[in-house]
Amino acid sequence: MPGYFDSPLFAPRSVRRSSFVTWTGTALALLCACIVPSVQAQTKFGVYSGSITVAETLNLPNLKLTSRATAKVTLPVTERASSSISAEFLSGEAPAASVQIAQWDTFQKESSADSGGQFNVTTCALAVPVEIAMTPTGVLNVDLKAKKYSLSIVLLSTKDVAFNCTHSRSGAFKKKAGIAMVIGTGAPGMQSMNPLPFTDSARLSGKYTLMPTSDTKGEHGPIVQEWDFRLGK
Fold this sequence. Notes:
By secondary structure, the chain is mainly β. Helix content is 6%, strand content 52%.
């Protein structure tokens, strides 16, 4: 598996131990814990398909990120009842998402000085905007009685993405890295705490800001999301 950028959404592996990425370090584990393993997802109950746009501006003293992406996803419905609709899928149980990465700019300053007393800085940006396939894992729960729904999706790229980088001491270099995205009405495992209302279960449209700056005193995000899903066969 490639080394993923995954700051609250995406962060360099070297800063993964920092307190501000505690929930992302266990995102997949938490998400899988709330999904009951089942047979390969079927489409006999229909699918929710649509697009998700995600934008983040992270601004920490030693780590900055500006990213913009649009994902097209298909979520197979795994259970339908008179009171609910559910789509629960582990890796490989839903079709790959097609994701257009428009921007991914990172800044990382080392927390300790090198042998010359310099705190080195590395900046990276996409070599070119790129469309990639990403594997989805997640859950969508639609409460037909309460007319509310919750969503959590983790997307992992199936191949590395090219970046142009600059190191303050050694200069320009190129690298490839995988990309991870966390989307939903809350952190994985916490999405049900922030359900959104709907009028028609056949169309779920919404906006949600994950980890907003008003709640974290400017130390995270915001991760601004907007999606539009339609239920079909």
